[in-house]
Amino acid sequence: MPYLKITILLLMVTPLFGAVSVPPQTAPVTIEGWEATVTLEEHPDGSIVYILETPEGTTEELTPLQFAKRHFRREQSRTFINRLFNITSPLGIAWVAIGLLGQALFTGRMIIQWLASERKGRSTVPVAFWWMSLIGASMLLAYFIWRKDIVGVLGQGLGWMIYLRNLWMIHRGSAQDEPSIGEDPDPEAALDGGGR
Q: Bridge-partner residues for 38, per DSSP?
């Protein structure tokens, strides 16, 4: 019964204030490299259009076919490098360079570990391995954040904590191994006369 009263009240009040207009349904569209903000909008008649708003504040309404043609022409005008690295701006080249350098460091750490193991004749992990891992992972993490790649972010982010922890353990271990200032590292050598 209360719903009936509310409905009757709304029917009586609506003519006084006019019909309530419902804003059109919209959805943002993310296309990397577009200077314009793109929104997909549904009109009351059911038609769908793309609204492009430039940074200067001008807006343009395009049908799906017009939008597809503009996007196609834009993609066709991209250079080979832009298509190869999937970038849309000169800043993207810098980010790809950071990612490639990070990957080179990450690969180089394995070469360092291999050479150190060959030199010692047994498997060993030098400190440089962990430093290269940390620096390479940091660069790759920044790159994957820029790319909005959750798989890369999780992979490098978790590894990053492990590399940092290993470096901390190495530093803590070397600090404990060193003698204190007043402590003689080899007191017997001084007694034998061989400590000179």
A: 29, 52
